[in-house]
Design goal:
Rossmann fold; Elongation Factor Tu (Ef-tu), domain 3; 6-stranded antiparallel beta sheet; 18 strands
Amino acid sequence: MRRSLQGSRGCDLSRAYHAAFCGAAPRPGSRIPHKSASCGQAASPAGTRLPPTGEKPGHSPYNAPFTQIAFFAVLVKVFRGLPNAESRAPCALTIGNFDGVHRGHQSLLARARAAADARGLPLCVMTFEPHPREFFAPEHAPTRIALLRDKLDALRRNGVDRVVVEHFNAHFAAQSPQAFVENVLWHGLHTRWLLVGDDFRFGAKRAGDFNYLREAGRQYGFDVEQMGSVSEGGIRISSSAVRQALAGGDLEHARRLLGHGYAISGHVIHGRKLGRDLGFPTLNLKISHKRPAVNGIFVVQVHGLADHPLPGVASIGVRPTVEDAGRVLLEVHLFDFNENLYGKLVRVEFMKKLRDEERFDTLDALTAAIAKDTLDARAFFGLTAPDAAAGRRDFATSATDRIS
């Protein structure tokens, strides 16, 4: 199945994934069952049952716009802004930021998927870039759990057919509740069924709420339902809880909240070649926002380069040691692996936090700390260190550490 990715506003940026990683092509005209991240288990079709923990996140061959993807695949239509008139079709809709697409989100999406199937409608998600709190108060905005690429892939894995990525700006924020209902929900998306959370607000000054939507639905002819928060063990599952777990280095708790290990995906970019000059190159991924939910030095495993995850050690943060540009990079040193990876799409899964970024007085002190990080990461995987007598230095200079 081959689809072109068109570039106009309201375009169909279809993403392909299935047979390349799951080994089976869909029947023509059929709907592929919604798979778990491992592509081996059907997702819950209905209700608000909490998705199981421990699912392994899938990997999507996700290319940039204006390319073609030649895999047999489930297609997710992604629109930048409201679809154009030719692409509009009645839909079941849910709205939210969906940062991290955690288990609470997954329960909401399962309920929405079941409602869409019962009505014979595609399931559409409207989400926002930037996060509304980044627009209103950037200095107090939350950290980002997921890049847009990872959010879209997670929505796809949870059975979403269409995603509208709405640019959140002053014009959008100033809409009255009535304008939002008429221009966005009705004329823009042809909403026939809508599911919102119990804290959902919309319109200028957050004047619109569930009761407003329910009355508007009666007027325009669409059904509106509300879903409460999802909790486990008395703990509310939320993006804020995931951020708190990641900030504290508690990756196991983050895994329980997300339903899978925390990971960041992206294409490998060219760095400053400092690691290569030392004989130990790093795999570099650019982080598109300046406030990632994780920061420091981590044990990681990298998916997408072999038929099994590759072990390594990674640093994520700004590069104060070598530059002042403020770029946020994820840099990974893979153990016993040295190939040309530029342009490859990879997924870096965080296994354990080793330490925060630190300030060092000398390069030797920095080098010693990173060498210890490498040994600790190897021990995590049960790997032996290379023979020091052979003169090999198995470490890469971390970009997140500082030299005074």
